[in-house]
Amino acid sequence: HQREKLTIEDQTDTEALINEGLRFALAAETPIRSIDILLQYMGQSFSGERAYIFERNSQNSFDNTFEWCSDQVLPQKNILINIPEQDLNSWVQAFNRNENVLITDIEAIRTADPDVYSLLKPQNIHSLVVSPIMDGRRLIGFYGIDNPPLELMSHISFTLQLFGHFISSILKRRDLVERLENLSFYDQLTGAKNRHAMNEKLASLANGGSLGIIYSDVMGLKQINDDFGHQAGDEALIYACENLKAHFPDKCVYRIGGDEFLGLIPGITENLF
Q1: Contact 68, 51 (CB under 8 A)
Q2: DSSP secondary structure letter of residue 206
Q3: pTM summary value
Q4: Phi, psi of 66 (to 5 degrees)
Q5: Given phi > 0 = left and psi -120 to 50 = alpha, else beta, which region is 93?
């Protein structure tokens, strides 16, 4: 009866912790902010030194895309990029079985899993809990907490499994928002920003600041389309846009009409422009 009572209390505490974490995360304005809040909440709630997310990239390796660090820990996100899957082979096998990985003492894996050991040791990690992020049956990443109290590791592992579905969902929502923003603010042919993005930028500029503007027009586009076809016309537009991007930052180049481009450079001096 005592064990059953403790189990019920533990489940109740876990449910309250998850509900509170989701409440904070869902109140954020953007999916990225939601993830940042959730990692901070988990890291602090479980007294970890670092909470993080790794995502599978187009090279089938893993990138550390999000992290929260306690005050005494140096950030690692900009270093842990393009980690080969084979270096995490033991973890990937566990993840594909929908299992978490718990390491209570890193020295115990020095010889048994040298690739993982060599990755973790320089980060001053002595224990961790990591859990898979799945899209259906496909592994898209993992997330975890470094150096939590050993007595909490089983509890953390259980909680991470429950949070995993929410994190997978919010990453999908982030990707959807990014695609919608791309469609809203970028010309799909040339990759330049569009007129809507230009209007947003102009509205955000402070009055009285310096602003450099270069207007350009692709001459003879109709003739190119008539003589060589619209694909050739598209290629001419892309070529013109790339020429502008060779001299101005990509974020400053806009396609504002069929054959019209604008370079909009705030804060630049007249001589430099």
Answers
A1: yes
A2: P
A3: 0.73
A4: -140, 150
A5: alpha
